[in-house]
Write a structure and sequence with these properties.
heterodimer, A: alpha+beta, Beta-lactamase, six-stranded mixed sheet, 17% strand, B: mainly alpha, three-stranded antiparallel sheet, two-stranded antiparallel ribbon, 5 strands
């Protein structure tokens, strides 16, 4: 039996060797990846050694802060549930409190002892902890400190009043809204609906989760929608660059046909009987599909695609504050911005159907670019970061991102948007004493049984814009009816602050 | 005549050093290790008494087996004292008692061949014990594997492990030639006739069936592998292993198709991250703990796994060791376990008769498969099936049974060496006379 014993021992030794390699894999190769996985609370526990900095809106209102359990109960006005606390009592218990409740859930995010961090709480984690370059959470575990260090405070560009106005106007409908300061790119509001109270995430996770409808997703940046007619703001840019005569009259009969390169394609308007004689401004104001589809077909696919590229389609939007991996790109079709489009695709894309997909953030940036003389600024969420010694660690400076339009082109599109409010699709949404520029969208979905998404892109005041807004209401039918009032409320909130 | 040192005192000093050093560190960290002083002192005394008894009675067997096992016990006690002091207090007594059982088995049994006399008694006892558990047992964690007797939880499958190995060892020792040669021709292979195979297949099959009914999948797997390798070892015919593989795969597939909890296990194994807050939490937390250990570990008492991993005291104690003592500590435990297994086979090679060889090897296989299956489970190399890690995990039944086997192994080793020596002396006398 000696031979078989020796063989068996060899086999067992081999198996133990594989087992040790498994340990090498987990302990040495994959260690950092495991530490970063959701559900691994080691880093959260280590982070308790630092008193996490607060998050404030532009007016200094508290959006998130760390406090003692006693303070938290006083501020919330209720007893804390069985919160999960780190083991041991080496460090004072920090409770992360969100005084604004469910108002900033998606953009500010949440910090939990059980679930993964989200939003700015995740992407600004290092800043809020005040970790220096090269300092990591693992290196914290090597430090034994008596009293917690303090992290940095972050002041955001967000405005609680505009945010609250937008969130309230949703009235339970699903969708997203983004407001931007056109001249600087400061994001003033970022609403995602439905929402939940992050103070109760740990206790009521199952309940929140059962709401569904992507409740944990920041729809303003992480979901793309079919834009429908708001896409005409992009198409118009391409047409103007291609030398469109804005005063040339086009006869809208409700449908039209284009034949080019042996292809033939028909396009129909939502208004079946047609809109009569249209120039560029009235075509934008009344949102004629036939006008834009036929003009785009005549100008050719490259002028449309170039315009899309100039507007930032297919590119990563550098809102680094939110962590670029959570921000989706807008696209013309599945390949981003393709080199060519077939006639039918081009015509459908020109009024925002076919495979065009945009994020609400990007649509707000498009509105802001038109408001800002054709200059698209990098969107920003963080105004400044202040360290515990009250020194400024970071200060926001406006940066140009793209220049999709010349000042003249921007002005022409702006005029069409003002017309939309005066006599076009956004007629009911005018505000006394302030000129608003707007574009509506009704994004039909491939599934005909579902109501289309309603879009609204606007800025105001038209002559000197202080706010640009994009709103999408899922299955809201017309943009003017569903998304328009939300945008209007946000604009009113922004203007009332100005006065 | 050459006289070799029967037992080197330094070998016995290692486990005690580990134990007291570990408890000292826990004490300095304020983990309340002072409550274990009496228990640890008792354990140390009994352990030293074992050493003195061996010295006194002239133990000639393997010198490394018990000290290696005691190192594992010491590591287990220290880690358990850190995870759950209440359980550790009990485990100290179990360990102390376990050393006593090993001594009793080594010296009280006199000759391991006496175990072979009651071959069918062992088999019957095993089957009856399993049946009792199945009908009167208590279900925990999906498995019905233990029952209460006078306030003490008894886990018969641990006892059955010994019973089956003794039965198999004796049966194989008696019938190995017949099993090895075979008279029935199946295609190119000759297999033994059913009369020979019968009792073997029945015993193994019945045990497996009962274990499967209890849903003790890990133990069933260990049984199957140990029986298979014992048959291979004694017959030296690879055909038995080759036959075992399709049987294993077939049963595994059937189990997967029939039982939802098997499907769950496999699903969790493939992607524990999906349900990191639900069913996958055990394996995910285990990997988080192992990963955070790194090369040198977080340090004793400073890991999070001890509080976070479900069943950290039993099935997942290795993950806690890997986190707090690091890769170095985890590999040290693996090497110690491997040393124990090597000694089993070394004893098997030196045993004077086939029963001794097969019995010692069977125990070696048992230790090897238990260790491999649970460690591969906690490191996500294989789907998890709950098993205690021998000598380290909390649990009196497992510990006492494993210490009984260590006693047996020492007995085999001692008896064989003594006979060999006697043979040499006898030979010498014969030549002189």
């Amino acid at each position: 039996m000696t031979r078989s014993i020796k063989r068996a021992v060899l086999g067992i030794t081999l198996c133990f060797g594989i087992l040790s390699l498994g340990l090498v894999y987990w302990q040495l190769v994959k260690a950092d990846e495991l530490l970063a996985k959701p559900g691994n609370l080691r880093s959260v526990y280590e982070e308790q050694k630092i008193w996490r900095g607060g998050i404030f809106d532009r007016n200094g209102e508290i959006l998130a802060k760390s406090c003692t359990p006693g303070e938290a109960e006083k501020l919330l006005g209720r007893k804390l549930g069985p919160t999960v606390r780190p083991p041991g009592d080496q460090y004072p218990a920090q409770i992360r409190l969100y005084p604004k409740g469910d108002l900033f859930t998606h953009v500010v995010g949440s910090y939990s002892f059980i679930y993964a961090r989200s939003g700015l709480e995740d992407s600004l984690n290092r800043l809020l902890l005040g970790l220096g370059p090269g300092e990591s959470i693992q290196s914290l575990s090597q430090q034994l400190i008596d009293k917690p260090r303090r992290g940095n405070d972050a002041v955001l560009t967000l405005d609680s009043k505009i945010q609250a106005a937008g969130a309230a106007a949703f009235k339970g409908k699903s969708g997203a809204a983004v407001a931007i300061e056109p001249k600087t790119g400061r994001v003033l509001a970022m609403v995602s609906s439905p929402t939940f109270d992050p103070n109760q995430l740990d206790q009521k996770y199952q309940e929140i989760n059962s709401v569904g409808n992507q409740i944990f997703v920041n729809k303003a940046v992480s979901v793309t929608y079919t834009p429908g007619s708001v896409m005409k703001l992009v198409t118009a840019g391409g047409l103007l660059r291609a030398g469109l005569d804005v005063n040339a009259v086009y006869e809208d009969t409700g449908k039209d046909r284009v034949e080019a390169n042996g292809e033939s394609r028909e396009v129909v308007d939502l208004v079946r009987e047609g809109m009569g004689s249209l120039d560029f401004f009235s075509a934008l104001a009344r949102s004629s599909n036939t006008y834009f589809a036929t003009r785009a077909a005549l100008a050719g696919d490259s002028s449309f695609l170039d315009a899309a590229r100039r507007y930032g389609f297919g590119q990563q939007i550098p809102l680094w504050e939110l962590g670029t991996k959570s921000i989706r790109n807008s696209s013309i079709n599945k390949s981003g911005v393709p080199a060519k489009l077939k006639l039918g695709e081009l015509m459908d894309s020109s009024y925002g159907q076919a495979e065009v997909q945009v994020t609400p953030l990007h649509m707000a940036m498009i509105g802001a670019a038109i408001a800002n003389g054709g200059k698209m600024m990098r969107p920003a969420l963080v105004e400044k970061v202040i360290n515990p010694k009250q020194e400024m660690v970071y200060q926001f400076r406006p940066e140009l991102w793209q220049t999709p339009l010349s000042p003249v082109e921007a002005k022409l599109i702006g005029e069409g948007m003002v017309d939309a409010v005066e006599y076009g699709t956004a007629k009911g949404l005018a505000i006394d004493g302030v000129q608003i520029a707007a574009k509506t969208g009704t994004a039909e979905l491939g599934n005909a049984t579902k109501a289309p998404h309603g879009w609204f892109v606007a800025y105001a005041p038209a002559e000197d814009p202080v706010i640009a807004v994009a709103v999408v209401v899922e299955h809201g039918k017309t943009g003017g009816g569903s998304a328009g009032p939300i945008a209007r409320d946000m604009i009113l909130a922004a203007l009332s602050e100005r006065r | 005549m050459f006289k070799r040192p029967v037992a080197n005192i330094t070998l016995f000093a290692y486990p005690l050093a580990i134990l007291w050093l570990g408890l000292g560190i826990l004490y300095l960290m304020g983990k309340g290790a002072e409550q274990f002083v009496w228990q640890a002192a008792m354990f140390s005394l009994v352990f030293l008494a074992y050493y003195l008894l061996n010295l006194l009675l002239g133990y000639r067997g393997d010198r490394f087996l018990l000290p290696s096992v005691a190192c594992l016990m010491a590591i287990g006690l220290v880690v358990l004292a850190r995870i759950n002091p209440d359980l550790a207090v009990r485990q100290f007594w179990w360990n102390t008692f376990g050393v006593g059982i090993a001594a009793a088995c080594l010296w009280g049994l006199r000759d391991y061949r006496r175990l072979a006399r009651y071959q069918y008694v062992w088999a019957l006892a095993a089957i009856i014990l399993l049946c009792i558990t199945l009908f009167f047992g208590i279900t925990t964690g999906g498995a019905t594997s233990w029952f209460r007797l006078g306030g003490i939880g008894i886990e018969p499958e641990e006892l059955v492990k010994v019973a089956v190995i003794i039965f198999l060892a004796n049966y194989l020792a008696n019938n190995r030639e017949l099993l090895a040669v075979g008279t029935v021709q199946v295609w190119r292979f000759s297999l033994p006739e059913p009369r020979i195979m019968g009792p073997l297949a029945m015993m193994v099959g019945l045990s497996l069936l009962l274990l499967a009914a209890q849903k003790s999948l890990g133990t069933a797997l260990v049984f199957f592998a140990v029986s298979l390798f014992m048959v291979y070892l004694s017959t030296e015919r690879g055909i038995y292993l080759a036959l075992g593989l399709p049987v294993f795969l077939g049963t595994g597939f059937l189990g997967y198709k029939l039982f939802s909890h098997v499907q769950n296990r496999v699903e969790i194994w493939l992607n524990p991250w999906q349900a990191v807050y639900g069913s996958g939490t055990q394996i995910a937390q285990s990997l988080f703990a192992i990963g955070s250990g790194g090369l040198l570990g977080m340090g004793l008492g400073r890991g999070f796994g001890a509080a976070k991993i479900p069943a950290a005291e039993t099935d997942f104690i290795f993950s806690v060791i890997a986190e707090e003592l690091g890769f170095i500590g985890a590999v040290a435990v693996i090497i110690l376990l491997l040393v124990v297994i090597y000694r089993c086979f070394a004893i098997a090679l030196k045993a004077n008769d086939e029963f001794g060889t097969i019995l010692a090897s069977g125990m070696g296989f048992l230790f090897a498969f238990e260790t491999l299956i649970i460690l591969a489970g906690v490191t996500k190399l294989l789907p998890l099936t709950g098993l205690p890690l021998p000598w380290i995990s909390y649990g009196g039944n497992s510990l006492l049974v494993h210490m009984f086997m260590i006693g047996c192994l020492n007995n085999i080793s001692h008896v064989s060496e003594r006979q060999a020596a006697a043979g040499r002396i006898g030979l010498g006398k014969g030549l002189a006379g």
